[in-house]
Amino acid sequence: MKRLLAVLGSDVSRSLSPHLHNSASKQFGLGVRYVALNCANDEAFLMLLEDLQVLGARGCNVTIPYKLKALQVAHERTSMAIQLGAANTLTFENNKIWADNTDGPGLLRVLVDYHPEQLECVQILGAGGAARAAVWAAREAGARKIVVTARRNAESVVEIAPELAVARTLSFVDDATLVISTLPNKKNIADQALESWISMAQQPAILDLAYGSSTSLSPLAAQAKRAGLKANDGRGMLVEQAALSLSHWVGGQVSEKIRKSMWEALDSATD
User: Fold this and answer.
1) Would you identify the CATH topology of the domain 3-101+236-268?
2) Which among 157, 169, 165 has a CA at the least distance from the CA of 133?
3) Does this model's pTM top 0.85?
4) Is 67 among the catalytic positions?
């Protein structure tokens, strides 16, 4: 019998995570089955956590907007989850919930491929759990300057690195060389944001941690490319954090074979 895994969030109906995990499980005989479960509110999220444990599930991923709540309800927390103040990976074991965060390490693996000049000034949009992971990853990747930009709660992200600059607006700093967006995957946000980017002399690279479909970029990354900016969406981070989570659940170090399997699954997926 296969062990159950899941991803929980406010809207995960189009999540690519089930396809990645199930493909790797089938290819390597890992014995897990991964499903997507929508949660309308905190109460529904907590009820699903209970249901998963009753069903004997191995664990779950957590996405917007429940990463902070996931950390709070856990009985045990890794140092990474504590440091980032959010959890995207929960493991059920011995009637306890164990919290970890694979977002930060996953994003770091993406950022190490960026040129040093692109990390001169990293601007991070948003102030949620993903923003905290982005701050940690950018600093570990060698960013010389990091600016957190959010209309609300930007100060909460500063707990990760007190030296950060904070701006309470979604306008963009003049010297940004890389803009990492942790904002929701919505076209109206892309339209509003690009009005500022297009006119910027610096022309920063764009990394949207949201992703579109298996065959198309997120609205923000797609529009940035049309505006002549270098842009990527969150599919790279999706694979990296997924490989880390799966390895945690099935045991052992993350192998390049699992990573490769997930990239192949992503490339072969259809909308």
Assistant:
1) Rossmann fold (3.40.50)
2) 157
3) yes
4) yes
